[in-house]
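G., before I forget:
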Amino acid sequence: MWKIIKNEWKYYGRTPWLLGISVGFVLVLFLSIWLGNFQTQKQTERYNTASNELRAQWESIDAMNPHNAAHYGTYVFKPANMLSSLDEGVNSITGNVLRLEGHVQNEIVHSEASQMQTISKFGKLKSSLLLQYIVPILLIFLAFSSISNEKRSGRLKLLILQGAKPISLIFAKTLSIWLYGVGLLVLTIMAYSLFHLNDLNVEVLGRTTLLLVSYSLYYFIITGLTVFFSARWENSTIALTSMLGIWIIWTIFLPNILMSSVEKWHDLPSRNEFKAAMQEDRSKGLDGHNPSDERAKELEEKVLVEYGVDSLSQLPINFDGLVMQEDEEYGNKVWDKHFGELRKVLASQKKSYQMGGLFDPFISLQNASMGFAGNDNLHHQEFLVQVENYRRVFIKMLNDKHAYGGSETGDWGWEADNEFFKSVPDFEYKPTALASVFPHYITDVLLLVGWSILVLSLIVFGAKKMQVL
Amino acid sequence: MSMIQLKNVNKSFKGQPAVQNLNLQVKEGEILGLLGANGAGKSTTINMLLGFLSPDSGIVSIEGMETSKEEKKVRKLIGYIPENVNLYPYLSGLENLDYFCKLAGMKYSKTELHEFLTRCGLQSDAHDKKVSEYSKGMRQKVGIAIAYAKKAKVYLLDEPASGLDPLASNELSEILKKLAADGATILMASHDIFRVREVCHRIGILKQGELVKELRSEEVSANELEKLYLEYMTN
């Protein structure tokens, strides 16, 4: 079998047009990595600068009322993932900047897509675009006549007479073309690694290995299926047309049809509905600015008993701070409820969409690619949760300062000093560990393995049924 | 003992007979030429000998082994030269020979490979040229070298002289005679009456799958053979 593979590779190496395409393609791949890397670096620099400036502004607050500071708020920036230059996933549409303030959980804004001048179906030149769409096309063009050409030229008879087994022939053709695709993949990852030599760690290596495995499986599916068609039909045009048809259905139609269906099956509330529902629930709670409502009264009675005093003016603390924190905590519960429901729907959508991989391995590849690159919706949701957790700590510190910092109830003019503002910790994003999210992608990997086994069976079947004449 | 033997062989495709009650024998060192028009059953006969087609009835055997039952063993004995020997155009003649030999499980040194090609009539300055630069005759010589290097006992040739210039055709005849003299058994299907008459020891005329005439080549001149052939074809 290796003799046939070696011979195929000689063909790739000695065919000028193929060599030209390969070199051109590798250059475009490198360019896409460089561009992706350049963009990621620029974004990181921009966000670091903005983040540092904001922190400096925060730390330079001389004296301010903590609640005013809560309204003044701060911003957090979603850091660009190291693997963004391989697959940016949903990052270009989800937004990257989030304003944190008291009373409210703001939406993440400033998405890359919202600032684009032009819109392309396939987006920017990214290595994921090349690896997911273009490499498979290249593999189809290399494979569609691999066996039918041998048949048409009469060489197949000669090969079989010399002792080559049909199964070895089909496998060797599949493997040689597949290795070509894997070669492009490895080159991409090597080029990517060169840009990030200092950042390579076990986490990144684990993720890139899983990316490599997922793409390799998909390339095997595409190559094996094309070679099978080439062996099954004498006319290579039929093999090419069939495979291009499958490619179009897999990469363009099915993902879109399935996504629309999944959105219908697991309906997400519209932005307005979500906001209205949050407001509705929130309005039932405390009004942070008006301590005279019912819940505030209950809190007041509880605090007065706790401190053994008769009126708010006798309290050694600022009751307004407690009310605001109570309001925050109620708001957090409301947010947890609604955001939790939202996450449940998103999780159901993801699960249903994942099952689409039963009919379309491209769906599994896309899920795995975005996931292992750390740029899918799951990782985005993890980021939002971390930000919300930070917001809670941030606002609680301000409310506690307002309550226990030394001011009295009703004293909205009281100011905390610079030392306090400096002591408020900055947001620190902890990238989601692969181990904690890997179970979410097992389905995708298993489906890719399942498809590979199916294609393997087709190859064996094709070899048995292969007509030499 | 006959190396090639066909006994009461019948083969039809979709009810249309391609070979009917065919009986043939070719002995070791003998060259048999099969003459016939297109669709006479020459290629079907060769494909049955190659084991790519099974007869509907009758026995097709090489060295006593039925081709449809012991195809692997039989194929080791066969060298096949089609009308167009389609080699890999991006490899040289030498590389093609090396590749096909390795597929057959035979490893030769470069010197040996050069010797095979030279012996089969390919000029030494062409050995390392890409096959894409070869003429049809040169490719056929590499095809014969592949069979020769495989140590084939039986050579099956399907229209080997078709499209060759007279010089190349003559060279091919000489090579085949030499191979037969060395003990190879050759069955050659052709339209070329004169070439068959010149090369083969015996000649069979096939018409609509039936062997209508079998004779020794020394029994007739080329002109007589042509006359005889045309008579069979027109009647």
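Residues 86 and 127 of chain A are 5 Å apart (CA to CA). DSSP finds 18 helices and four strands in chain A.

More on Monday.
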